[in-house]
Amino acid sequence: MTLIGVRSRVTDATWKQRVKQAARDEIVIKRILAKEAKGLSLNEAIAKVLPANRRSWALRRIPSYREQGFEALIDARTPREAEVSIACRQAVQAAREANPRLTVAGALEILGKQRITPLPSGSTIKREFGRVKERRKYARRKAKKQGRTEVVELPLAGGELLAAAETETGGIAALTSEVVRLAERAIEASEGQTPAKDVGGRDADGQFTARYNRARRRKHGEQVASYLRTADEKAEGRVPSWPRFVHEQPETIDAKLRMLVFCWMVAGSKGWDALRAPDVAGLASLTGFVYMPATLAKFVSALAISGAAQPLIEATARRWHEVGEERWGEPGAMAALYIDNHAKEVWSSLFTQSGKVSHLNRVMPCITTTYAHTGAGTPVVLSVQSGGAPLAPRLVDLVEQAETALETEVERAVVIDAEGCTFDLLESFAKAKRVLITPLKPSRVPTLELTYTRGSYYRPYRDNDELRVANATLVHKATGRSLEVGALLVRRAHRDVDTVLLTTGLALGMEGQDLADLYFRRWPVQENAFKDGNALGLSEHRGNCGRIVANVAVITELERLEGRAKRDAEELRDLAAETATLEAAVVQHARDRQRAESALATRRGRLDDLIAQGKTGGKAFSRVALDHQQALVHAEATVKLATKARAALDKNRSRRDTLTERTTEIAARKRHLEPQRTIRQLDTTQDTILTAAKLNALQLISFVVREYLPTMPMTPQTFLQRVLSVRGRKETSPDQELVVFYENIRDPLVNESLRDACERLNRRKLQRDGRRLRFAVEPPPATRERFD
After folding, report:
1. pLDDT tens digit sequence for 658-682
2. What is the 3-state secondary structure (H, E, C) of 103-157?
3. 3 state DSSP class of 482
4. Reported pTM
5. pLDDT tens digits, 410-432
6. Contact by Cβ (8 Å): 203, 209
7. Helix (H) / strand (E) containing 773
8. What is the distance between the alpha carbons of residues 151 and 165, in angstroms, rounded to a whole number?
9. Among 131, 267, 344, 388, whose Cα sits 20 to 30 Å from the Cα of 754?
10. How far is CA 711 from CA 165, 418, 719, 752, 775, in A?
11. How far from chain centre, in Å, is Cα 473?
């Protein structure tokens, strides 16, 4: 309640008393702030001015005083609300009728200008807003019964193209059918059982209490709080029919699923709270009802606990593959599966399983989704895993899983990036007589053994490229086994090194150019699809639930460090035992060296004396010279022994210092790794469900762009920015629905594309709910009422 409202509901005497009290309070607060400005902390300043029992009063008042000033100190409490006057009720309802977007603050401003007192509370104004809304709904129902045309303004009229695409394709309808089927199975499995109501920790009004929140906290000894457990763990012990959606009508389930599909087109940020944005209200004409984020979050959680993740993914794949087969067919000599991983980052302070996130070029906590895109561009989700998930060990199983999901007998050519270029993988596909195409890493090209058949040379291929077919011999390093596969050498104009593709398709009778076409089609079909998915937040994860598992990498490193520390300790003991012996040897060899050098000096002096005297002949000189030679040899030998002994001691000390330092480093590394023996494995169930919803949205946009807007090729991001946001209106009568798009004078290209789309749609004669769908483009009205 604003101060204007407070003033309107209290007497003049009470108001003056509150103002005087606020003035007295301001004096005290200014004294506190002055002491704080002199260098005291806020707590110290309060203690200097006020007694301890008024500390909380000051802490409550000071922040609001700093922001709002004197007005924040006036007592804003109001007495019991008086009965709303007829004039006030009529003014609020009339204002809301004129402006459906009117807020509580706006209504209070209008009442203030009309000098209506006392001013009502916010809840009272909202109640009057609700009455206006109910009258509007009643008028719509009455008009529908009487056969009159109902006109609804569309802030996101471009979404009607997506609704028309859904009418033709039934992508969301396939999800609804799958959820309804799960609900029916849950009811059958729950026969004779009654789900327990979640009433623990609630008050008399059904609201959660503090006791409920305390019960959800992580208990002593628990690694994961109860509310952060995985969907499988939460499902244990529950009666299958416990979720709300099990007992809802298909129409309600369809509305919630439509909301999950369309909401990410207008969400401007991450998380469920992004759906509180005003633009989300514009989805009402597409979804039937704009659900709040909490409702959708509970719906997704219930689907996850009920095991709906994989069925929804499979339903998405089957339905859109059927649409792709029916509308666009499979390109190339044979159908293809383009398999690749898409890692989405998880920004978490917890230690979580990690992997390589390509678009960030870093290893970090992530969720890896494995996709198989068909030749028609249908994305099929094969797995969603926490952390990294290499493709090569799982490729054969993934291919079988994809072909089973597509329910076809066609054996497709598998196209994968350089991760699949392994000997075992190529050998397994060759034995199974399946086609695999994978590029060879450039670093391995020089070592590849190639042989060419007669007449093999580079032939023109695509624009400025050339293609040559060869045979390659691969040798397994460990066993020495060899494998003959085909090799496609593509000389590209903008690269210095040839692109080498290894394939098993040549041995199965396929042409080199067809195989190369299948590989290079991967970029528009798959890689661009990953980029397009960012427009709907496909790279954003949902849900932080998980379970604690052993961190194999850390445990392995700890075991390796423990083994090294043990070996270092044994070596250190041996070196310490040798030190005394080496030191004694050094001392002894030093003495021997000193004696030898002293003896050599004596004999050198004798020899020098004889030479000085000129007595260089005779037996005496020969004897002295021989003694000098022997002393010289002995001195050199003692020097070598002393040097060797000193080197051995220095080596011993250096090695001991190195081992001591490494022991310290190992101990520090072990202390760092010890808390990381366990790691969090993210639960990807909710992420899988939302991925299915986003894939449906992407496929609907793709259908609209390919079928309705072929004159203006665009990415999903462009569609959301320039087409979805087009305004318009919908006129609904008993026999038809007319969707009118308002021209955008600043975007004539979109206007022309919409006119062409309207002609195409009108020729299709689509029907929805028994009414004919018609589309048109008109200039925007000169004056248009504001709408929700």
Report:
1. 999 999 999 999 999 888 888 888 8
2. CHHHHHHHHHHCCCCCCCCHHHHHHHHHHHHHHHHHHHHHHHHCCCCEEEEECCC
3. strand
4. 0.72
5. 678 898 888 888 888 888 888 88
6. yes
7. strand 771-778
8. 22
9. 267
10. 17, 36, 13, 9, 17
11. 41
